[in-house]
Amino acid sequence: MFALRSMLLVLLLAATAPAQLLDAPTTTAPERFGESDTVTFQVGAEITASRGACRNLRAMVAIPFECDEQQVQITNEDFSRHVSKVKYRDLDGGAKQMLILIPKLAAGETARAVVTFEVRTKPILPPEEETIAQLVVPKKPERSVRKFLTASPYIETRDRKIRMLAKELWTEAGETLAEEEADVTDWQRIESLYDYMLETIQYIEGPDKSALTTLRDGKADCHGRSALFVGLCRANKVPARVVWVNNHCYAEFYLVDADGKGTWYPIESAGSRAFGEMPLARTILQKGDNFKVPERPKERLRYASDFLIGVPIGNSGQPKAKFIREEME
Fold first, then answer.
1. Taking residues 34-41, what's their average pLDDT?
2. Fewer beta carbons within 10 angstroms: which end of the chain, N or C?
3. Nearest to 263 by CA among 164, 124, 85
4. pLDDT of 259-287, one tens digit each?
5. Regarding the domain delimited by 37-122+294-327, which CATH topology (the fold level of the hierarchy) does it fall under?
6. Where are the alpha helices (DSSP H) in 218-282?
7. Residue 23 has what pLDDT?
């Protein structure tokens, strides 16, 4: 299972210039929400110069992501004297990071920057039957949605096996449903992809797997199952993406109504079956699976993980970092 607590920490030998903030794309809220669940969530980092002094330290920490079904508010900030600035930035509209800037840490010193958030998340209820009948795959999705049609880390949309299976399932669903009903909807075709994933891929805890590896092994956890569903959708030109929540992930697909208004619909990748709805209100951290971080220009990230850069002073070594992300009692 994807473990949010096992984050990447790397010390680079050169400082990096601040990145420009990006505007988040406009989204459309699902038609109905359940009552919100409110939690207190702490996020931040403690950085100790355990192997000598360092300067120009910059820590990047993923924080709860504000979206249609989730509102986020800062309720407390705990910054030690070493922290010169804390700011926030969007990553291509699907994630938000807290940037912690520390000019210098003397040997043995610890800098702390922890922010407490009040997070209100609503479960997503399924659409009405009359709405479902009108929903279609967008022929010309807007730019902010088109990026969820291509391959990304762990989602091999262009692989021949994925593409052939996706086409076969799409066609088969249409033929099977047509025998029972006059009209076959895109919703039903996508649901057939979801049911294939549930019935074919056994849920089992383990390492994160790609869509192709999941298909080969026939078993995976929430990450591999989500990746396969997203891959099958994209191969059929259905925009889809991974949603990262605290200690779990699932997927969403995108359809438009008769007026061209688009909405993201979730699917559950573990536990009880849930298609087009999300009964549980979990703290959402990121939406997407192909992020680019200014400080890591050569990498494509399925998840914008916690990260640290800085410049050692003299013969100093890598500092010790403790990233904090926890729901409070």
1. 96
2. C
3. 124
4. 999 999 999 999 999 999 999 999 999 99
5. Immunoglobulin-like (2.60.40)
6. 222-235
7. 40
